[in-house]
Amino acid sequence: MKWVVGALIAVVVGWAVVSTTAAAPVSIDETSLKFLPADTIGIAFIDMNGLRSSPLAQDFLKTSNKSVYPRDLQEFSAATGLKPEQDLDKITAAKISAHEGIVIAQGRIDRFKVEQFFKDRGQRTEAYLGQSFYVDGDRAVAVFDNLVVAGQLNALKKAIDHMQVPGSAPLRTELRDAIQTIEAGNQVWAVGEFSVADVQAVGVQSPSVEILKSLRNGSYQMRLDTGLHARAIGNFADAESARNLEDMANGALGLARLNVAGRQPEFAQLLDGIQVSASGNALTIRIEQSGELLEKLKNARMIDPKLQ
């Protein structure tokens, strides 16, 4: 069941680095919002429609290798007819508590076929407030018309509880304020409280992870137009942690530049587009890359083949 959440997000990561689209204000759509309890501590959003409208993304999708998708996702797609890169419109991930969260996927989703897929796999079902859950251990999936909600069983129940109550309490003020800091036009963004476990969950394993234990909250935003523009801000418990990460990151970037200087000028140019700086308790990472450079790197297979 873990693949359901991970694969939905992985679909986007593979081709977001080469796409572009028109700007539109960031927001949480009403459909997703009704599943988010008032005590939600973190939110991430991916505008699949915006990414998909890009000529660069369309070109990438034509040449991308779908065989790199997880086997379970390939089986799911074959059984349900759902093609994530074409049929998903919005993906919202919410951190409900320190160790629980949900992912809400919206798009052209055939409820009958998706439910039949889980039934054919012998998935255990559990009824809750009139909704059927497909359960595997501590994780579960709830299927609606053109919408799927997946996550830890307890977090999913909280989401259904919230959905059932008319006029539920809004999100916390600090989270709403954080969303307001996301600049218009970003198709991928995240705000809220994050931890070292969240970083490790997306595959980051390095000495810097120890320093990340002092990470308190932060934000991420990515806009794609004629190039890629991204900014991540992490707020730490102390200024020393932010400075140490700044030194480590800039040291790694400098070493990488030395290794590729003269041999891979395009990759050196890519590294030059990454800037890391610390100010007080905050660490900021800025990335500015042109679409032309990203296309060159893609064609030269200098980007991880798993992302193609």
Please compute the radius of gyration using only Cα atoms. 20 Å
Q: How many DSSP E strands?
A: 12
Amount of helix: 40-55%
Termini Cα gap: 25 Å
Order of helices and strands: HHEHHHHEEHEEEEHHEHHEEHHEEH
Total number of helical segments?
A: 14
Structure, explained:
This protein has 308 residues and is of the alpha+beta class. The protein has 2 domains: 1-169, no CATH class; 194-308, no CATH class. The protein is built from 14 helices and 12 strands. The chain has a 12-stranded antiparallel sheet with strand order 4-5-6-7-3-2-1-8-9-10-12-11, with helices on both faces. Strand 6 (139-144) and strand 7 (147-152) form a beta hairpin. Helix 12 (239-260) packs antiparallel against helix 13 and helix 13 runs antiparallel to helix 14 (291-299). The protein is globular. The two termini are 25 Å apart.
Jot down its keywords.
single chain; 308 residues; alpha+beta; twelve-stranded antiparallel β-sheet; globular
Short synopsis of the structure:
This protein is of the alpha+beta class and 308 residues long. It is 41% helix and 28% strand. It contains 14 helices and twelve strands.
Task: Draw up the topology in text.
Layout: H1 2-16, H2 30-33, E1 42-47, H3 48-52, H4 55-63, H5 71-80, H6 84-87, E2 88-97, E3 100-107, H7 111-120, E4 124-128, E5 131-136, E6 139-144, E7 147-152, H8 153-164, H9 173-179, E8 188-192, H10 196-201, H11 208-211, E9 215-224, E10 227-236, H12 239-260, H13 265-272, E11 274-279, E12 282-290, H14 291-299
Antiparallel strand pairs: 1-2, 1-8, 2-3, 3-7, 4-5, 5-6, 6-7, 8-9, 9-10, 10-12, 11-12
Helix pairs in contact: 12-13, 13-14
